[in-house]
Amino acid sequence: MKSLLLCGVGGQGTVLASRILAQAAMEEGKFARTAETIGMAQRGGCVVSHVRIDSKDCSPLVPLKKADILIAFEPGEAVRNLPYLKPEGIVIVCDNPICPVTASLAGIEYDSRKMIDYIKSKVERVIVVDGNKICEECGSSKVVNVALVGTIIKTGAAELSEESVKKVLKSKLKPEFIDMNMKALALGMEYV
Q1: Which of 75, 108, 132, 141 is deepest in the core (most CB within 10 A)?
Q2: How far is CA 64 from CA 5, 86, 160, 171, in A?
Q3: Measured between alpha carbons, how far is 128 from 1 in angstroms, rounded to an integer?
Q4: Cα(20)–Cα(160) distance, integer angstroms
Q5: Which residues of 3-15 are buried (b: 16+ CB within 10 A; e: fewer)?
Q6: What does the pLDDT read at residue 99?
Q7: What's the gap between Cα 114 and its chain centre?
């Protein structure tokens, strides 16, 4: 069984990414469960999506210390969700910080480099993805989620194929967005 925990901020495409991964698993004949804890996502709040692949005898929620991969769309969310990661797990983190409203109002420093350094001090395998660079190359700020899916696939840790993900993308996206997202998928894979 593979357990993936995706975390981010409302509006980043966290839930869509989890559904792409689950559907890709089902395309390969595997069993998949998903669950989300969304909270105040529409207002920039935390979003956590759980994906469990190939076990019918488990909860859809990933227990603490059981995630094979932690996929973070934002560094602060990666730090907050580290307790879910297995000791030998992988962290994939987008380096674009989204400062929480509470930190902005309090004037608290919100430094993504410090958060990523902290993650690296706690986890052996960390892959940092440059979300701004990918968005520039693809011409859209809406492709980071697909790029992170590409990074997940390329690690091999989710045991999902590029072909099944591409098939899902083609079925879920409007035709005018397919090329841009295929490029994002490929760029995400380059980080591994």
Answers
A1: 75
A2: 10, 8, 23, 33
A3: 25
A4: 11
A5: bbbbbbbbebbbb
A6: 80
A7: 20
pLDDT at 134: 97
- pLDDT single digits (tens) 9-37: 888 899 999 999 999 999 999 999 999 98
d(CA 82, CA 192): 20
| Strand ordering across the sheet containing 125-129 | 32-37, 46-53, 2-9, 67-72, 85-94, 125-129
CB contact at 8 A, 21 and 30:
no
Q: How many domains does the chain have?
A: 1
pLDDT of residue 40 exceeding 60, the answer is no
> Inter-axis angle of helices 175-189 and 162-172, to 10 degrees?
150
Q: CATH number for the domain including 62?
A: 3.40.920.10
pTM of the model: 0.93
pLDDT per residue as tens digits for the range 103-154? 677 777 889 999 999 999 999 999 999 999 999 999 999 999 999 999 999 9
Q: Residue 29's domain spans which residues?
A: 2-189
Given a contact cutoff of 8 angstroms between Cβ atoms, the answer to whether 187 and 147 are in contact is yes
**Residue 180: both structure tokens together:** 């841009």
